[in-house]
């Protein structure tokens, strides 16, 4: 994997140039945010639910090893095989071995962000396993060879026409279809035979319940249930942070999840998997892949509370105007920007800067992750770890020095005013001035406030008592 | 004398005599001096003992927000030297207040520093919560305005209710503006959406920033606003630049100017 920092700004610029896509993307996600708001207003206990969800998750994370072992013990009693994967490589090897033992060549799967983290599909392809995504959006992304651009609606950056084009190539449908129902039907027709003849099914898991040794999968298309139950072999890949202690906790999370994500009261399908079906086998692969290390990060461990609802993406004005792919990572949007640097600090060093720190993400988060404060803290960490471009670092260094020296500072302000009022337009608005690319510069003024005060207030305050330090 | 009307509604000893230090952020000093002058005049009309230390520069926010916290130390130290002697520090800027109050930690946290951090107020907060001003008899603004709450005032200082939380609606800036004669309000479709300034974000993420700005000013314009009024000139500077380039006919004014009696 290349360590070259993701150029979010350039990718976003590219995204913005395409007006129809930009407008659809922004409005579609804003609509989800508004539907979420409407659900919130229906429930007077919304803030209590958030507080409770946060509390349960923080408690669980603080005793993660105990609860993981409790889950393992109880899951085994239910006849579930439990595997532990330290990282993506181990995960892929484990899955590959299970499939090989069953001589399984065709795997159908529902959405799982963890398998994206592990880059599983290319690994299995090399082993001769055909992987078919059954979630509509995820399938579109698979056919287009793109990462999901959103953790709940993976193809939200595409218009109907884009999907029609992709399906025409792979399913030989009419590229001019503009009726989403017809496209959904095309996917159904293409997917059903694959599902019926699959050797193995894979799902993710939204929640893992320690006391019962069971896990819960929430979807809207029913594709996870088909993937899990049509073949006799079901493998579930789940991050170790997905635990809750008790079945009774599920009520809190189920009430929050879909309301936060899509603004619907509950997902169409909420399936509790309690053990293998008759004559079948069920495997759960618990994946660490950096989570245990993240748990040890004082400022960032609460990012593990995330239940992957995507509400922070829907509300994020930057995400809505740059698209998930611009983040160049498995996880995009505000939550991605605080998780991704834990996978690769250099590569994702730009993402905490893809934010205005406006704080809307923190307010919508159903488990109360202080996302925008973590973005702020990540910037400090990245600068300490020398992951800021040299020029920007130097500018900040010089600015910091200047701000400590009032006389030099006054001279600099004067120079700015002079250049704004005397420089020709082509000098003020060139490629060296990103501000002026799509914006006018502020207007020069006759006198600064400082000048005005000196002239207009006789008893002007005296300079600061201590002499200014020269550096 | 307008102050008489103000005084008529108040007991003489309702709040203790305070010495106020006025901080005028760099972009107001350089580009929006009228907002600074209005802030000073307004506080003077309200019979406050206000001083503006001449050797002030910046609160350290640009360095702090960029993650270059150690580079904020000189600005923060100077800020404390300038303002430690005042009872209250008032500034017409939500984001600078947020920095001083919540992130001002590049220097050792001495008693002086803590005093400064605990006694720094954004202008609207100060008028609303400390002075509890109930009238601006000198103010009349016969225009339709759209209120832009900066994210600093909204989500950090919490001077208004936030749409994401579903809390009971309140707005300190709206409370104050409602006391101005002749003013009317336009409500944009996305009142809480960030305008995209974001400090250095406006340059490093220029395309997204400008797009957010254009969307913001269009939203206000389509709602019927003649002016966008805000307690933050940094948002105004950005939005004005976007509006002028995109040809959106809308004007900008700092809340201090309206409360101080500007007519346009």
TrEMBL record, chain A:
> In which domain of life is the source organism classified?
Bacteria
Q: Which GO terms describe its biological process?
A: lactate metabolic process
One Pfam family assigned to this protein is LUD_dom
UniProt keywords, alphabetically: 4Fe-4S, Electron transport, Iron, Iron-sulfur, Metal-binding, Repeat, Transport
Any one GO molecular function term: metal ion binding
Iron-sulfur among keywords: yes
Location of the 4Fe-4S ferredoxin-type domain: 297-318
Entry protein name? Lactate utilization protein
Q: Which organism is it from?
A: Komagataeibacter xylinus
């Amino acid at each position: 994997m290349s360590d070259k920092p993701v150029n979010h700004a350039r990718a976003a610029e590219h995204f913005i140039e395409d007006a129809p896509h930009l407008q659809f993307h922004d409005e579609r996600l804003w609509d989800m945010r508004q539907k979420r708001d409407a659900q919130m207003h229906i429930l007077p206990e919304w803030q209590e639910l958030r507080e409770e969800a946060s509390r349960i998750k923080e408690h669980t994370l603080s005793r993660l090893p105990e609860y993981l072992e409790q889950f393992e013990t109880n899951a085994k009693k239910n006849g579930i095989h439990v595997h532990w994967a330290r990282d993506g490589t181990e995960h892929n090897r484990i899955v590959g071995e299970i499939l090989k033992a069953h001589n399984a060549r065709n795997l159908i799967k529902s959405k799982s962000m963890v398998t994206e983290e592990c880059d599983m599909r290319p690994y299995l392809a090399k082993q001769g396993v055909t992987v078919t995504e059954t979630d509509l959006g995820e399938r579109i992304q698979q056919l287009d060879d793109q990462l999901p651009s959103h953790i709940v609606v993976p193809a939200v950056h595409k218009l109907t026409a884009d999907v029609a084009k992709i399906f025409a190539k792979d399913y030989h449908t009419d590229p001019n279809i503009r009726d989403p129902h017809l496209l959904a039907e095309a996917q159904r027709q293409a997917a059903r035979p694959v599902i019926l003849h699959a050797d193995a099914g894979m799902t993710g898991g939204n929640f893992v319940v320690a006391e019962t040794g069971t896990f819960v999968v929430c979807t809207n298309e029913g594709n996870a249930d088909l993937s899990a139950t049509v073949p006799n072999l079901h493998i579930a890949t789940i991050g170790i942070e997905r635990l809750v202690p008790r079945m009774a906790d599920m009520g809190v999370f189920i009430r929050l999840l879909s309301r936060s994500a899509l603004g619907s009261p509950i997902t169409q399908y909420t399936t509790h998997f309690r053990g293998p079906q008759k004559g079948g086998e069920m495997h759960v692969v618990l994946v660490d892949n950096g989570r245990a290390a993240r748990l040890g990060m004082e400022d960032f461990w609460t990012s593990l509370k995330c239940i992957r609802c995507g509400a922070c993406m829907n509300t994020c004005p930057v995400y809505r105007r740059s698209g998930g792919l611009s983040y160049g990572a498995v996880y995009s949007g505000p939550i991605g920007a605080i998780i991704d640097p834990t996978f690769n600090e250099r590569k994702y060093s730009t993402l905490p800067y893809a934010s205005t720190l406006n704080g809307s993400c923190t307010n919508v988060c159903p488990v109360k992750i202080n996302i925008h404060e973590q973005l702020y803290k990540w910037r400090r960490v990245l600068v300490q770890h020398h992951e800021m471009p040299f020029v920007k670092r130097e500018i900040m260094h010089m600015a910091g020095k200047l701000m400590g020296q009032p006389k030099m500072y006054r001279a600099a302000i004067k120079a700015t005013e002079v250049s704004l009022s005397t420089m020709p337009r082509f000098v003020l608005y060139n490629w060296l001035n990103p501000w002026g690319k799509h914006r006018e510069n502020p207007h020069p003024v006759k006198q600064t406030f400082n000048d005005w005060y000196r002239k207009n207030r006789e008893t002007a305050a005296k300079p600061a008592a201590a002499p200014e330090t020269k550096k | 004398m307008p102050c008489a009307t103000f005084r008529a509604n108040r007991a003489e000893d309702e709040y203790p005599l305070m010495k106020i230090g006025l901080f005028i952020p760099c972009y107001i000093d350089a580009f929006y001096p009228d907002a600074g002058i209005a802030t000073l005049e307004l506080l003077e009309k309200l019979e406050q003992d206000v001083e503006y230390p001449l050797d002030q520069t910046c609160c350290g926010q640009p360095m702090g927000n960029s993650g270059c916290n150690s580079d904020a130390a000189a600005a923060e130290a100077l800020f404390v030297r300038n303002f430690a002697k005042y009872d209250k520090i008032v500034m017409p800027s939500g984001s600078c207040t947020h920095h001083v109050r919540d992130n001002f930690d590049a220097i050792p946290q001495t008693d002086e520093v803590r005093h400064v951090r605990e006694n720094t107020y954004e202008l609207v907060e100060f008028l609303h919560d400390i002075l509890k001003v109930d009238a601006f008899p000198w103010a009349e603004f016969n225009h339709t305005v759209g209120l832009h709450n900066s994210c600093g005032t909204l989500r950090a200082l919490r001077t208004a209710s936030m749409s994401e939380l579903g809390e009971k609606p309140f707005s300190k800036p709206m409370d104050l503006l409602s006391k101005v004669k002749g003013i009317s309000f336009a409500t944009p479709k996305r009142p809480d959406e960030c305008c995209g300034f974001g400090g250095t974000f406006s340059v490093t993420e220029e395309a997204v920033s400008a797009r957010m700005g254009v969307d913001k000013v269009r939203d206000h314009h389509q709602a019927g606003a003649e002016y966008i009024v805000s307690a933050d000139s940094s948002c105004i500077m950005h939005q004005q630049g976007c509006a002028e380039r995109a040809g959106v006919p809308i004007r900008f004014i700092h809340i201090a100017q309206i409360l101080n009696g500007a007519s346009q």
